[in-house]
Write a structure and sequence with these properties.
Blueprint: H1 13-16, E1 29-33, H2 36-39, H3 52-58, H4 73-87, E2 91-95, H5 98-101, H6 111-126, E3 130-136, H7 142-146, H8 155-170, E4 176-181, H9 183-192, H10 206-227, E5 232-238, E6 242-244, H11 250-262, H12 265-270, H13 275-281, H14 289-293, E7 299-303, E8 308-312, E9 320-322, H15 340-354, E10 358-362, H16 380-398, E11 403-409, E12 428-431, E13 436-439, H17 441-458
Parallel strand pairs: 1-2, 1-11, 2-3, 3-4, 4-5, 5-7, 6-8, 7-10, 10-11
Antiparallel strand pairs: 8-9, 12-13
The structure holds beta-D-fucopyranose.
């Protein structure tokens, strides 16, 4: 059965209702997000080079999952765009896989890899869906990581050349560009926590990585701006309140906030590092760096799932780690805290601190969905989560935040990093052995919400 046949699964009465959308601007953008490594597959096809995540998977994830096939989106992108059309989204955020277009990380581009994104972008435009292109969603070419990856300053010119290639190739059709997805997450989990998790480079060099990513961001903004008339450029940050697990963890939570929430937006938007980070970074900085990092931006991308609870941990590299939720905080099936009012607060904080229009570019719920005996996937918990979080967004807008769009993570169940395929974030179920797509109840709910919001905007 292709996506589109069959009766839509029914959400139950308690979750079916919609949040208030009254405060949203008329031209509010509704979208969905994905990323290259998590959905494309075709890992060994058409000349793609290996990324750090291919290497990491070879070390052995749970279930020995890899990105080799993932959602096979490389071959099924047309079917996936048809799903987006059914949803009625105006925008689709995806990322380009650096090692697909530059298998050696630099030097000779791979024409076959570049052609995949030509096909994808052309099909999106033909479907009336605006492509939002993110340059980096964590899949660094392995060959560059072997040379030091984010810990060497050379990476700034490698990334700039890559950004110039992508902007030059697609800038006639793509206007929305993001430099990085969640720089604080890949630097902290790659170099900061030092607990083996995602510690893919094995180098204790968080501060160098932070600074080089920021420099690469600034240089890429200039490279895209120079090549794409009318470009609208931003970066995407995982921004969520860092809250103490217990009263004794208050200092640790404040410290974590500097790295998790401020180490990238502060220099990129304000031209300064928080003091404590500035001191740690000084050995890696050169005159003029902050001016190169702070380049004019058009918007601020927020990815948000729930607050981060933090504990003091004297044995951790930075003196803090992820802590337990205090008792009584509701959680998703994978244990992530559900606190919609902290989303509202986060959006208001970002609006006030950085003064840019905001797009929420990821939000969603991870679970262990399964089709029922009729083959339907009734994910009421996800619907309730989306309803409450979109409601909180509406409240932030009525309290004055300039928020212009909302993108669900994710269109499809996909490769969820360390959890492989065991955790599902999609509003479309993917039966991985057959690659069959089954829209979940949340898919139908989101489609109806978009319809209602757009009717309201037109009326
Ligand atoms: C974010 C990532 C995204 C996805 C979601 C669940 O941190 O950007 O790739 O894994 O979490």
């Amino acid at each position: 059965m292709s996506a589109g046949v069959g009766n839509p699964p029914q959400a139950d009465q308690t979750t079916r209702e919609f949040p208030l959308l009254a405060a949203l601007p008329r031209d509010f953008t509704w979208g969905v997000s994905t990323s290259s490594f998590q959905i494309e597959g075709a890992a060994h096809e058409d000349g793609r080079g290996p990324s750090v995540w291919d290497t990491y998977c070879q070390k052995g994830l749970a279930n020995h999952d890899t990105g080799d096939i993932a959602c096979d989106h490389y071959h099924r992108y047309a079917e996936d765009i048809a799903l987006m059309q059914r949803l009625g989204v105006q925008a689709y955020r995806f990322s380009v896989a650096w090692p697909r277009v530059l298998p050696q990380g630099r030097g000779k581009p791979n024409e076959l890899g570049l052609q995949f994104y030509d096909r994808l972008i052309d099909a999106l435009l033909a479907a009336g869906i605006e492509p939002w292109l993110c340059l980096y969603h964590w899949d660094m070419p392995q060959v560059l990581d072997d040379l030091g990856g984010w810990t060497t300053r050379d990476v700034v010119s490698w990334f700039t050349d890559y950004a110039a290639l992508v902007a030059g190739r697609y800038g006639d059709r793509v206007k929305r560009f993001a430099t990085f997805n969640e720089p604080s997450i890949f630097t902290l989990f790659g170099h900061g926590f030092g607990d083996g998790q995602r510690d893919i480079s094995g180098v204790n060099s968080l501060h160098r990585a932070v600074h080089h990513v920021n420099l690469a961001h600034g240089a890429a903004v200039d490279a895209v701006r120079a090549r794409v008339p009318g470009a609208s450029i931003g970066a995407i940050h995982n921004f969520q309140m860092c809250l103490p697990s217990t009263l004794a963890d208050a200092e640790a939570a404040k410290h974590c906030d500097l790295y998790w929430n401020r180490a990238f937006p502060d220099p990129q938007c304000l031209g300064t590092y928080p003091d404590r980070i500035q001191r740690a970074l000084e050995p890696h900085m050169q005159t003029g760096d902050l001016a190169h990092i702070r380049r004019p931006l058009d918007w601020f991308g927020v990815n948000h799932y729930g607050p981060t609870y933090v504990k003091a941990d004297p044995n951790a590299r930075l003196g803090f780690g992820i802590g337990p939720k205090p008792p009584g905080i509701p959680a998703t099936p994978i244990g992530w805290p559900i606190v919609p009012e902290k989303f509202r607060e986060t959006l208001l904080r970002v609006a006030k601190a950085y003064g840019l229009p905001i797009y929420v570019l990821e939000n969603g719920l991870g679970g262990h969905d399964k089709p029922d005996e009729k083959g339907a996937v009734v994910d009421n918990e996800r619907i309730a989560y989306l309803r409450d979080y979109i409601g909180a967004l509406n409240e932030a807008v009525s309290a004055g935040a300039d928020i212009r769009g909302y993108f669900v993570w994710s269109l499809l169940d996909n490769f969820e990093w360390d959890s492989g395929y065991s955790v599902r974030f999609g509003i479309t179920y993917v039966d991985f052995p057959t690659q069959r797509r089954i829209p979940k109840a949340s898919f139908h709910w989101y489609r109806d919400l978009i319809k209602r919001a757009r009717a309201q905007a037109d009326g």
